[in-house]
Design a protein that fits this description.
This protein is mainly beta. The protein contains three helices and 14 strands. It is 7% helix and 37% strand. The two termini are 23 Å apart.
Length: 246
């Protein structure tokens, strides 16, 4: 997939421009940096475009604003829009009849930080045709239970990666990478593995048939790669432990 999504995009909440999303490329990752005015409701932010939605996460209070910063790999973006028109509340309909080029050219103002939330400058309304539902607040919506304030479970959001560009080398003794006795014992029979380094993490690629035989609660495999038409499964190692994300 050709990913061309870097740029600045408006955050549309309740039919108005409430902030801005900036997407930048950082090596193998795409960074999503979002800022908007404080809201009374929980903001679960998604990006929209090409008739698709890509979920980013829950925005958190930061001073007098809401902020969110997430990084995604190419593999994690496989179901995201290839072109972004805007960001908004998760599950909302996409703009109707608004071209991406028009959206990106429209200036977007971010509220200035203020000691008085009520005095924050009003964000300019956004050009283009919105679905009617964007303008209507559903006051009958039931209160959000406390558990709903928590981000989704870690397993559902760790970014998978396309790591074929890394410098992979044969790993003769995979068990030496782990500090725990159980992990060392579990990995003592691994053969034909490869290892690579990325941002202080060690990546261990294990032949798929061996990886599938290992206990899932001891070694976590988060991605896969092919070497010479043979499939390998990859685990991320930090400080001698198998972890789920960078």
């Amino acid at each position: 997939m050709d990913i061309e999504i870097t740029g600045n995009y408006p955050i549309i909440l309740d039919g108005e421009t409430a902030g801005e999303l900036t997407v930048t490329r950082e090596g193998l990752f795409w960074s999503f940096d979002a800022k908007c005015e404080l809201r009374s409701e929980i903001v679960r932010l998604s990006v929209y475009g090409d008739g698709k939605e890509g979920y980013l996460g829950i925005m958190e209070p930061f001073g007098e604003m809401l902020k969110l910063n997430r990084k995604f790999s190419r593999a994690a973006l496989k179901d995201f829009p290839s072109r972004i028109s805007h960001a908004g509340q998760k599950g909302e309909l996409e703009f109707i009849g608004t071209e991406v080029s028009e959206i990106k050219q429209e200036p977007v103002e971010i509220m200035q930080e203020s000691t008085d939330i009520n005095q924050a400058p009003q964000a300019p309304s956004y050009s283009g045709e919105f679905p009617q539902s964007c303008y209507i607040k559903d006051e009958s919506e039931p209160p959000v239970p406390p558990e709903d304030n928590k981000p989704p479970p870690e397993e559902s959001e760790y970014p998978l990666m396309d790591m074929t560009a890394l410098d992979w080398r044969p790993c003769a003794l995979p068990c030496s990478l782990f500090s725990g006795i159980r992990e060392k014992r579990v990995c003592s029979n691994i053969t034909g593995a490869f290892i690579a380094q990325l941002n202080g993490f060690q990546l261990l690629a294990v032949p798929e048939d061996i990886a599938l035989s290992l206990p899932k609660d001891a070694i976590h495999f988060v991605d896969e790669i092919n070497f010479s038409d043979e499939k390998f499964m990859i685990c991320i190692i930090k400080n001698g432990r198998s972890v789920l994300e960078f």
